[in-house]
Amino acid sequence: MQLDFFPSKTLTLYLAKLFIVRIVAMLAVLVLVLMALDLLSTSGEILSVPGNGQAQLLDYVSLRIPQLIARFLPYSVLLATIISLITLNQNSEVIAMKAAGLSAHQVLAPLLLTALIVSGLSFAFNERVVTRATATLKAWEGAEFGPIPKITGVRTNVYLTDGENILTAARIIGSGPDTRMEEVTWYQRDPQGMLSRQVRASNATYAGPGWKLSGYESFDVASAETTQGETMVVGKGLTTDQIELESVDPDTQGFFELSDSIDAYDAVGRRSTELRSKWWHKLSGPLSAFLMPLLGAIAAFGLARSGQLFVRAVIGMALGFAYFVVDNAALAMGNFGGYPPLLAAWAPFFLFALIGETVLIRTEE
Fold it and tell me: Does one domain contain both 137 and 232?
């Protein structure tokens, strides 16, 4: 019986239903509260744009909610785990299950299976909904909550290098020879790396080679003089292919699309460490929901009348939140090249899986 993780169909369905209801409830509460707080800080900026009103606020909510769901779904699974197990413990249902011969792993098996299904749904949701909502929201924020750009392939806050010189753009729209930049700044530096001139323009188009600035304003650092002109070509070493590579945003690309971007980086010898870390994390991130029942399982075992149930719940919550802290820190180290991408994405998961399994075994009795 100990090797049969689902000895009772009725018990499995009961625990799974109990767990999924609490996951949905906790996720709804977290998303509603956080969305309300987000609107308090953002609604003024949205409504300050002429013509924006309630419809634009609803647009923002529809784009922001998928991001909140994706980010806080694992937290919801953790809280649902603790609440479910505390309830089962207080009602002596855990004692009844153990008296029937079930081990700790058999008690948790329905919760782990449910969490695994939630992880799969989370991955599909991220691929189909979150990436598209993030791309649209970033384009809208880049337009300062003005009219949402209708052209696909909008990238915001792009930073490009041409030797010692730097070209930045608030938005890049289109692709190939039709690529257009908006709110452009060109920083020209001398061989020693010191800034010698700064040029600003409202837009730039591809001149083949280079990028033609229209209606520019130039500031010369040495003479402290400002001049204006109609057109100016800069960044002759920047091609449209390089622009598309430089402006890859892993948060707006799905798993398979990001894989193609990584291959393109490797083909031209570009550093792809950050993209690879995000690529692996698109798998380990949703799968973190599967880990939460194991980390919160400490709340299920031990007598409720011992007075330590609250302490056990706090320990389970601390283990879960410690995982998210370590996971974010490892991902940041992977982005900077401190950790290999595979290690940055998966080391926290397996580390806390071992910790959770150890705590579960030692606290079962």
Answer: no
Predicted confidence at residue 268, as pLDDT, reads 63
Backbone angles phi, psi at 159, to 5 degrees: -120, 120
Tell me the pLDDT band of 62, cut-offs 50, 70 and 90: very high
Residue whose C-alpha is closest to residue 204's, from 228, 235, 227: 235
In a domain, 264, yes or no: no
Separation CA 273–CA 337 (nearest Å): 6
What residue numbers bound the domain in which 181 lies?
155-247
Instruction: Tell me the β-bridge partners of 304.
Output: none
Domain count, the chain: 2
**Same-domain status, 128 and 93:** yes
As a whole number, mean pLDDT of residues 74-91 equals: 90
Confidence check: pLDDT of 217 > 60: yes
Name residue 186's beta-bridge partners.
167, 199
pLDDT at 239 over 80: no
User: pLDDT tens-digit profile of 173-195?
Assistant: 777 777 788 888 888 888 777 88
- 56-67: average pLDDT: 94
Query: 183 and 130: one domain?
Result: no
Q: Which residues share a beta bridge with 53?
A: none
Question: Which residue, 241, 274, 297, 250, is CA-closest to 19?
Answer: 297
137 and 198 share one domain:
no
DSSP 292-359: HHHHSGGGTSS-GGGS-HHHHHHHHHHHHHHHHHHHHHHHHHHHTTSS-HHHHHHHHHHHHHHHHHHH
Lowest mean pLDDT among 229-238, 250-259, 260-269, 322-331: 260-269
Q: Nearest Cα to 194, choosing from 173, 223, 165?
A: 165
Residue 101 lies in a domain: yes
CA distance 156 to 142: 6
Rounded Cα gap, residues 196 and 188, in angstroms: 6
In a shared domain, residues 69 and 38:
yes
Structural domain includes residue 90: yes
